[in-house]
Design a protein that fits this description.
- The complex is a heterodimer of chains A (118) and B (113).
- With 118 residues, chain A is an all-beta fold.
- Chain A is built from no helices and eleven strands.
- Helices cover 0% and strands 48% of the residues of chain A.
- In chain A, strands 2, 4, 5, 6, 9, 10 and 11 form a seven-stranded mixed beta sheet that branches.
- The model of chain A has no long low-confidence stretch (mean pLDDT 89).
- Chain B has 113 residues and is mostly beta strands.
- Chain B is 0% helix and 52% strand.
- Chain B has strands spanning 3-5, 10-14, 19-21, 24-26, 32-38, 44-50, 56-58, 64-68, 73-78, 87-94, 101-103, 107-112.
- Chain B starts with a strand and ends with a strand.
- The mean pLDDT of chain B is 89.
- Classes of the chains: A mainly beta (118), B mainly beta (113).
- The A-B interface holds A 4, 31, 33, 35, 41-43, 45, 48, 50, 55-56, 59, 91, 93, 95, 97, 103, 105-112 and B 6, 32, 34, 36, 42-46, 49, 51, 90, 92, 94, 98-106.
Chain lengths: 118, 113
């Protein structure tokens, strides 16, 4: 079975432009997570989706960041008016959560999108 | 909020020597704990996880970790390092809701031949 995929793998953009990063989770995984990994840093939690709903958006660094998920599957992370400090690897992960409340907390990570803002 | 501390951003060991990577967490309730490995230019891969069963957890590639509630620690060990173990290792914690994961800043392991 396919794992988590992310596109593009690399994105170079000019300061001030908008970018969209895409994540395709593993089929059947209802939970989806976005993280940011800056050079030499750990993973910074950005946002979490359960189905199409994002209960906690407090991790988004600023109002330039937004994310959505449609059909309980694909998610898009959008960064508006990009700044140089947005340069990082953006990681997506998914995990299986059942409606009955049984959880499998293992997160499966995608390869990431390396964003460079010039 | 949870926090995860990984002592030592860089660890070097000789091939065949013991690997010990340290992780401490802050949590008022028993959490779920994880170790992930990131090989160069690859995504994160789960090594092992603690979910309130046995306190000694065995993972892939000969790694294991022991949950010590009294010390709020979840250190990762491997008896004998192999060259292929060179990678970045991340400790993570999640509360039982699973809604948010907190990662440490990572430890880069170098294995010296």
């Amino acid at each position: 079975g396919a794992g988590v995929s992310q596109s593009p793998s690399n994105k170079v953009t000019e300061k001030g432009k908008d970018v969209e990063l895409r994540c395709d989770p593993i089929s059947g995984h209802t939970a989806l997570y976005w993280y940011r990994q800056s050079l030499g840093q750990g993973l910074e939690f950005l946002i979490y989706f359960q189905g199409n709903s994002a209960p906690d958006k407090s991790g988004l660094p600023s109002d330039r960041f937004s994310a959505e998920r449609t059909g309980g599957s694909v998610s898009t992370l959008t960064i508006q008016r990009t700044q140089q400090e947005d340069s990082a690897v953006y990681l997506c992960a998914s995990s299986l959560k059942t409606l009955a409340g049984g959880y499998s907390y293992e997160q499966y990570f995608g390869p990431g999108t390396r964003l460079t803002v010039t | 909020a949870q926090s995860v501390t990984q002592l030592g951003s860089h660890v070097s060991v000789s091939e065949g020597a013991l690997v010990l990577l340290r992780c401490n967490y802050s949590s008022s309730v028993p959490p779920y704990l994880f170790w992930y490995v990131q090989y160069p230019n690859q995504g994160l891969q789960l090594l092992l996880k603690y979910t309130s069963a046995a306190t000694l957890v065995k993972g892939i590639n000969g790694f294991e970790a022991e949950f010590k509630k009294s010390e709020t620690s979840f250190h990762l060990t491997k008896p004998s390092a192999h060259m292929s173990d060179a990678a970045e290792y991340f400790c993570a914690v999640s509360e039982n809701t699973g809604n948010q994961f907190y990662f440490g800043t990572g430890t880069s392991l170098t294995v010296i031949p």
